[in-house]
């Protein structure tokens, strides 16, 4: 097909296809793991709280600690928004500081929610 030899200095090797940036992949995997482990962690914390004396009494006789429902909901909304922000990192560019902040916000919101669950049963 191409019978001519390339002129000196004009041939370049083809550019490799764009691979996903390792940082973006790490961020998405971390966010996915943190989001998917939220439900088993909540179940574990609830079982651990009910296993205490005060938690068992709370479950049996009522009188659990007072944590307002809107606080639970607000924590879940913040965690969900942070999870989506961290998961939607584009693969072709390194993740921004805001995406990493979203991951840490997700983790903090989940830990706060787990503390609220523990406080509800033992408080």
Helix content: 55-70%
What amount of the residues lies in strands?
under 5%
Low-confidence stretches: none
Instruction: Report the span from N to C terminus.
Output: 81 Å
Q: Which H/E pattern describes the elements?
A: HHHHH
Number of distinct helices: 5
Query: Based on DSSP secondary structure assignment, what is the total number of beta strands?
Result: 0
Broad structural category: mainly alpha
Average of the residue pLDDT scores: 85
Largest sheet: none
Taking all Cα atoms into account, the compactness measure Rg is: 25 Å
Q: What overall geometry do the principal axes of the alpha carbons give?
A: rod-shaped
What features would you describe in this structure?
This protein is 67% helix and 0% strand. By secondary structure, the protein is an all-alpha fold. The longest helix has 26 residues. The mean pLDDT is 85.
Show the helix and strand layout.
Elements (H helix, E strand, L loop, with lengths): L21 H15 L1 H13 L2 H9 L7 H19 L9 H26 L1
Keyword list:
single chain, mainly alpha, 123 residues, 0% strand
Entry summary:
This protein is mostly helical.
């Amino acid at each position: 097909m191409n019978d001519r030899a390339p002129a000196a200095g004009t041939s370049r090797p083809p550019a490799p296809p764009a691979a996903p940036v390792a940082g973006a992949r790490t961020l998405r995997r971390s966010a996915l793991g943190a989001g998917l482990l939220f439900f088993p962690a909540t179940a574990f914390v609830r079982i651990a709280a009910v296993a205490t004396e005060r938690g068992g009494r709370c479950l049996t006789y009522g009188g659990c600690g007072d944590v307002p429902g809107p606080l639970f909901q607000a924590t879940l909304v913040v965690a969900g928004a942070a999870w989506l922000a961290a998961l939607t990192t584009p693969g072709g560019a390194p993740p921004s500081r805001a995406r990493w902040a979203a991951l840490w916000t997700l983790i903090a919101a989940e830990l706060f929610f787990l503390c609220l669950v523990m406080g509800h049963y033992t408080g």
